[in-house]
Amino acid sequence: MRRILNILAKNYLVLIGVLLVGVFLRFYRLEGFVTFLGDQGRDAIVVKRILTLEHFPAIGAPTSIGQVYLGPFYYYFIAPWLLFFKYQPIGLAFSVAFFSCLYLLVNYFIVKELFDKRVALISTIFLSFSSILIDFSRFSWNPNLLPLFTLLTVYFVIKSLKTNKWYFFALSGAFLSFSIQLHYLSLFLIPPIGILFFNEWIVSFKKLRTDVINHVSTTHSLISQFPNLLISIFSFIIFSSPLIIFDLRHDFLNSKLFLALFQSSGTSFLTKINSLFDSFYYLNLYSFNINLNKFFVYFLLLFLTIILFTLIKKRSNLKTFIFIFLLTILGMSLYSGPKYPHYFVILYPLYYIIISHFLIFPKEAKWEKYLTVLFVIGFIFLNFQKYPYFRSLPNNQIALSKNVAQKIYNNVNDKKFTVTALPEKYSDSTYRYFLEIWGKRSLEKDSLEKANELFVVCEKKCDIIIGNPMWDIAYFAPNKIIGEWGVEGVKIYKLIR
After folding, report:
1. Where are the chain's structural domains?
2. 462-471 residue pLDDT tens
């Protein structure tokens, strides 16, 4: 069995096959199944205005929790893809799918360098077939790029500590900033990375002191590390500067709202411990698509903790990965709210690599080696059950939004018009996007200017149109419906005052 694993690890044809499957699963029937809802429409509008030189945002999208704002990195990073696809929104989804495929290749070569070919191959198999990562790779959303950026952040941190090269320190600071701008939970990467840098500084200081006491003439790395650490911090600040300036100008609004999320999550020690176990439980559930016994999950968490302590005095890439992983999930456990799958996107890449390492750990018994192969096969089988595009009808959300927008476009008679949607009050951005690129731009959502026409898109069941308390409709104060159309099960109403 070891011979089989070694052959597979050395055979680049196997790697190419795994990568091709991963690419196929990310692009197969992409346009028909892509998610194109309120967040995607909002981002498309912002990116379009960047490309037309109309507006250059200094902050990114608001988060769903506490109205904490992200940085603008995601908008600028994906902007060229919308231009390449001639402003068709599928371009944004295509960009995420492309970088998700690139992530598979990057993972293989990084893990190969830090561990070995076998760990690299097994972890790449996990990433290629992982239904949760495939789901996140098939539509445009800021957290969906995090697996790639998290891995690169950790890699540059490790390279900084090993080589003491200034450019690795600069890259580690930059990619940490990018990760935080993709999702605010990436802030929990700061403590473990900061501790690693500080620990290396302490080790270097002790070594320098020993050399001085022993009258050893040396130019120790302590001297060069200090400016390198400053370079890392400076790089982080530079790339985070729009968000930092926003916070300074708004009395630290972002920081206060972020801290409030965790202050309100419960303060008892038992609550935090339960939240930690819950976080690890859901991480395993999302990662492996299997509902494991909670006691087994708790044992696994304890096992990783013990492994970390056994490696504490050794220089080990595994120790670094486990340390960052455990401290990050500990930080995340401070938030005791719902554990959504995208909250763990900074942990998936680390966890798959750690698990892969233990799967190829030298084994003596043949049955253990067979168990590794069966584990990988079982993982692939469980994930194949989760791919909807093999057995379900496409949602065609882009096509539907386009058709609804076309109907509105054909019935706009006044330049001062606006669009809203029921019951999801922010989902109208998808229709607004198409209207804007077609040259009929509606009034802004938060505009106080009175429109002369209001189009209400009823996406589901709508009990009340005239007299609806939603702000968009109430502010317009309609008294008459002058048009009503149906588009693929969606109702469109044209209202006037």
Report:
1. 2-389, 398-496
2. 878 888 888 8
Instruction: Please state, in angstroms and as integers, the Cα–Cα distance from residue 400 to each residue in 349, 411, 485, following that order.
Output: 34, 17, 14
Give 3-state DSSP helix, strand, coil % of the chain, rounded to 5. Answer: 65, 5, 30
Q: How far apart are CA 77 and CA 64, in angstroms?
A: 21
CA–CA distances in Å: residue 441 to residues 56, 406, 418, 431: 18, 13, 9, 10
Quickly count: other Cβ atoms within 10 Å of residue 476's Cβ.
21
Task: Decide: helix, strand or coil at residue 357.
Answer: helix
Ordered DSSP codes for 436-465: HHTT-PPPPTT--SPPSEEEEEE-S--S-S
Answer whether residue 445 shows pLDDT above 60.
yes
pLDDT (mean) for 339-359: 93
Contact residues for 481 (Cβ-Cβ < 8 A; gap 6+) = 465, 466, 493, 494, 495
Query: pLDDT digit string (tens) for 248-303?
Result: 887 777 777 777 766 655 556 667 778 888 889 999 999 998 887 878 888 888 88
- Could you write out the DSSP letters of every residue in 36-81? -SHHHHHHHHHHHHHHTTS---SS-PBPSSTTPBPPSHHHHHHHHH
What is d(CA 261, CA 334) in angstroms, rounded to the nearest whole number?
A: 9
Residue 124 CA to residue 127 CA, distance in Å, equals 5
In the 8-state DSSP scheme, what is residue 190?
Answer: H
Average pLDDT, the chain: 87
20 pLDDT above the threshold of 90: yes
**307: nearest Cα among 318, 291, 296:** 318
Q: 381 forms bridges with which residues in the sheet?
A: none
Between CA 172 and CA 151 the distance in angstroms is 11
pTM given for the model: 0.90
- 29 by DSSP, 3-state: which? coil
Per-residue pLDDT tens over the stretch 450-460:
899 999 999 88
Q: What is the pLDDT of residue 341?
A: 93
